[in-house]
Design goal:
This protein is of the alpha+beta class. It has helices at residues 4-18, 20-36, 39-48, 61-64; strands at 77-84, 90-95, 100-104, 108-111, 114-117, 126-127.
């Protein structure tokens, strides 16, 4: 049976090959996993050879451990600017890649830390 600190080392080694942004995000994820005492969950997934075709929580850990091939950094959008559209029920958002999207102002969107109303997005928020 693999120990949590060994699994952390494996994940850090693989994440470092992707770049600093991955390693920084992985370190944050590991702190949260430790805080929530979810270590055994990840050990079990790794040891069972579990594979997912999604990464719904946008985590680096399952990518680094080979649990998924979905890259959370490439599939994350950062809000650069928000502007009212003149219509109370729509929100115009400029993403870090230059794209502009218009979404309803009061729908739930998934962000790094959970779900919030789109009208509560702030510059710098990451959402998937």
């Amino acid at each position: 049976m693999i120990e949590w600190n060994e699994l952390e080392d494996i994940a850090r080694q693989k994440a470092s090959a992707f770049g600093d942004a991955y390693l920084k995000r992985l370190d944050f994820e590991i702190k949260e996993i430790n805080k929530q005492a979810l270590n055994q969950y990840w050990i079990d997934l790794y040891e069972e050879g579990t594979k997912f075709d999604h990464n719904k929580n946008g985590l680096v850990l399952p990518l680094a451990l080979g649990i998924t091939e979905i890259d959370p950094i490439k599939h994350t959008h950062v809000v650069e600017n928000t502007e009212p559209t003149g219509l109370d029920d729509l929100l115009e958002i400029e993403l870090d890649n230059g794209n502009i999207i218009v979404i309803p102002a009061n729908v739930l969107v998934s962000v790094k830390d959970g779900k919030i109303l789109s009208s509560q997005l702030k510059i710098g928020d990451e959402f998937v």
